[in-house]
Design brief:
By secondary structure, the chain is α/β, with parallel strands linked by helices. The chain has a single domain, classed as TIM Barrel. It is 39% helix and 16% strand. The chain has 13 helices and 13 strands. It has an 8-stranded parallel beta barrel with strand order 3-4-7-8-9-10-12-13, surrounded by 5 helices. It has a 3-stranded antiparallel beta sheet with strand order 5-6-11, with no helix packed on it. Strands 1-2 form a two-stranded antiparallel ribbon. Helix 5 packs parallel to helix 6 and helix 7 packs parallel to helix 8. The chain is globular.
């Protein structure tokens, strides 16, 4: 019997999403939780190991940024079985994010809408947390800019956090694609993006051990915009691209126009995003060489979704919304299905 589906999820889904998130995190922090998580969910196989360029993970199913914004439960998530856990988005200064309510479940569509706004305790606070743990999984750190920072100074925010957190991340992600910080997506424009990535890579290359550096892009870009981003990724020798972030579109939903308007602004994630994110991975793959790592994210719920994403060109995948709807057992289930179907590392 699926305890999460029949007992835990109904209780959590009666709560406001952010309250449910807090309840789960409090549970994960209880003494002994790591033991039970490992006992129930940990499942590893050498056949699942993935390595390309300077990016390597124990298995190809990662957790996307946004769930553990401050790096509070990394090892618990590792014991659930994630091959890599991306924490953040983190900004140089702490900030509260957008006014509540700002997170909504679209249960019928197995989707979420969020307009969180990079709420986090800041880079220095994250450093203190990471100093206290010995990680049991690969850690990615997702970097953003503070809301109050003008676009022309945005590069300074990414540099500050990168320098502070460099020793604690196994890879880093430049987030210029969240729809919930005003004008942030303008940083995907050529000149802004080139400045940010060039400065980060200069710092990276000055270190004795360079870290994999990724850019996370929006699903709402034109092919021309994606081409410009790929050009910069190649120029600056980034490790890879994460596609995609949440969408501002409201397609593939069962809701009425009025219901959609009632939710307001925010990024849509979950099943309605799958087709779009997979198509963008397919397009990027057709334009890049095999050394660039592609992480596919958006609407992945089952083995069929993973197979489609890998066939489109992704090397590894991340989940988020399916973790909320399916529970912690989904990670083990997906890994076992990948082994059974021999869908590992086809690219």
């Amino acid at each position: 019997m699926n305890i999460y589906k029949f007992f835990i999820k109904p209780l959590l889904f009666k709560m406001q999403p952010e309250k449910a998130h807090k309840v789960i995190f409090n549970f994960l922090k209880l003494p002994g939780s790591n033991f039970f998580l490992k006992l129930l969910f940990k499942f590893e196989s050498k056949t699942l190991h993935f390595e390309k360029s300077n990016f390597k993970v124990n298995n190809p199913i990662g957790l996307a940024a946004g769930l553990d914004k401050d790096g509070e439960v990394i090892n618990q998530l590792g014991n659930i079985g994630f091959g890599f856990v991306e924490i953040g988005t983190v900004t140089p200064l702490a900030q509260p994010g957008n006014p509540k309510p700002r997170l909504f479940r679209l249960v019928k569509d197995q989707a979420l809408i969020n307009r969180m706004g990079f709420n986090n305790n800041g880079a220095a606070s994250m450093v203190e947390k990471l100093k206290k743990i010995k990680p049991n999984t690969t850690i990615g750190i997702n970097l953003g800019k503070n809301k109050i920072t003008p676009l022309e100074d945005a590069h300074n925010d990414y540099v500050k956090s990168f320098e502070l957190l460099f020793d604690f991340g196994d890879y880093f992600v430049v987030n210029v694609s969240s729809p919930n910080t005003p004008n942030l997506r303008q940083l995907q424009d050529k000149e802004f993006l080139r400045k940010i990535l060039k400065e980060l890579q200069q710092i990276n290359l000055s270190k004795p051990n360079q870290k994999p550096l990724f850019i996370k892009i929006a699903p709402d870009l034109s092919h021309q915009q994606i081409d410009e981003i790929i050009e910069i990724v190649v120029e600056e020798k980034l490790t890879g691209i994460i596609a995609t972030n949440t969408t501002i579109e409201r397609k593939n939903l069962s809701l009425t126009k009025q219901e959609i308007e009632n939710y307001g602004s925010g990024g849509l994630s979950g099943k309605p995003l799958k087709e779009k994110s997979t198509e963008i991975i397919r397009y990027i793959k057709s334009k890049i060489n095999d050394s660039i790592v592609l992480i596919g994210v958006g609407g992945i719920f089952d083995i069929k979704d993973i197979e489609e994403m890998l066939s489109a060109g992704a090397d590894v995948v991340q989940i988020y919304t399916s973790f909320i709807y399916e529970g912690p057992g989904v990670v083990k289930k997906l890994k076992k299905a990948m082994i059974k179907n021999k869908t590992v590392n086809k690219n």
